[in-house]
Amino acid sequence: MSSEARKMRRKMRSMMPHLSNENADAVRKSIDGLVEARRRQTEEVSAKVYQRLSVEMRERVTPEVMGDMFVLFLAWLRDKKGYGAKRLPEAAESLEDYISGIYEAKITRNDIISSIKDECGVDIAAVFEKILKEKGALSA
Predict the structure, then answer these.
(1) What CA–CA distance (Å, rounded) separates 6 from 15?
(2) Which of 15, 83, 84, 115 is the most buried (most CB within 10 A)?
(3) Is the pTM higher than 0.70?
(4) Distance CA 78, CA 84 (A)
């Protein structure tokens, strides 16, 4: 039961303390139904907004920007992590799947950020924001 449903039930109990158990159960079921309908409606709206934002992102993030990010990361792997003729092509191929997934709205940037934070304890969004602030690209 959601906190919203609990709040609504408490409010109903305080407003109608004389309800029988049978009537109280009916009220609880009605409240649960309303909360569920509201949750479904919120999910539907969220899905529509996400789809619209996904389209806007594809329009805003040009293939050139995605290409630049791709090249920078591969250069970093080569220069800082010693990837060479064997591992670098494997990494490039694997990255293509992620880029396609983001571009086709199968996975989001936030999905990746959350996964890395949960699994590795690294908040890459905060790290990136810190770098941008240090470089003056974001206001502090």
Answers:
(1) 14
(2) 83
(3) no
(4) 6
